[in-house]
DNA sequence: CTCGCTGCAAAGCTTTTGCACTAGA
DNA sequence: TCTAGTGCAAAAGCTTTGCAGCGAG
């Protein structure tokens, strides 16, 4: 996956939808793709601000929103507030460790069976990609006091 | 499940942990249990305010927090912000329809296999009860325009 | 009598929005 | 030129917190 090509292709999607390609958008898209699927809006803002401090986080949100409408970006909620963004071309689900914040990816087909069951038995069509599956990674499980009180959030 | 007995038992848990049983706490617990597993803090506040308008929502949050620390209550996030509260004695997962807001319950064992796999392959211990599984219920699926743009949020 | 609980108001966190200005195409 | 995009500041939505007074045990 050649990053520059991906950046260009993403910006092109924006343009062909009638959008404009601006410096901020270019930098945001670049940071998003460099982030490799696990970046929050705030991290993106921080990143682009290194080279251009005037880019406001509202612009980051608006750019991500535009890309999401076009179907090339998705966001995933990790908890109460925070969300991360990634390219839609790379479908996956997320495991989010409440202990250390680590994010791991899992293949969607892992849930295919459960998905079918819910669909069949409850008539419900899930969108499992939109929220991370939270829990504790191996090392945080070992550190964890015991069981009661499943930590914060 | 006799509600009054459940209310008493819940308050007793609070007392035996060194807490005090107050009017607001009693009313909040009663409303929580009457709510049958699907009430938000705001709904609880609204409910108790019918008989006691001076109970502040901060008190509702603090009471729920105290109960949660004691392990008798859990909360479940439905989306970006909202969370609902239910008794921990009734373990279940939730399906939350993005279209109409309807909440359905699913038995935890539905996910037992996936859970084991994630545990085995990723060393990750999930807490699937903490976020609802979102998607669309049968009737909202039929209403839905098509596929692109998976709605709000 | 003491310490936990309460009400109130203010703040926190992430995301959104209104507005006037700037700048792509 | 003309409209989309931008920066700024303010607001929104849910939850938490500081503080002083109140009341359960």
Write the layout of secondary structure elements.
2 copies of one chain form a homodimer.
Chain A: H1 3-16, H2 23-34, E1 39-40, H3 41-51, H4 57-69, E2 73-77, E3 83-87, E4 93-97, E5 103-106, H5 112-122, E6 125-126, E7 133-136, H6 138-143
Parallel strand pairs in A: 4-7
Antiparallel strand pairs in A: 1-3, 2-3, 4-5
Chain A binds a DNA duplex (25 and 25 nucleotides) through helix 4.
Mind explaining what this structure looks like?
Two copies of one chain form a homodimer. By secondary structure, chain A is an alpha+beta fold. The first copy, chain A, folds into two domains: about 1-85, Winged helix-like DNA-binding domain superfamily/Winged helix DNA-binding domain (Arc Repressor Mutant, subunit A, Orthogonal Bundle); about 90-153, 2-Layer Sandwich (Dna Ligase, domain 1). Chain A has six helices and seven strands, in the order H-H-E-H-H-E-E-E-E-H-E-E-H. In chain A, the strands form two sheets. Chain A has a three-stranded antiparallel sheet with strand order 1-3-2. In chain A, helix 2 crosses helix 4 and helix 3 (about 40-50) packs across helix 4. Chain A is globular. The model of chain A has no long low-confidence stretch (mean pLDDT about 90). The interface between A and B is large, with 38 and 39 residues. Chain A binds a DNA duplex (25 and 25 nucleotides) through helix 4.
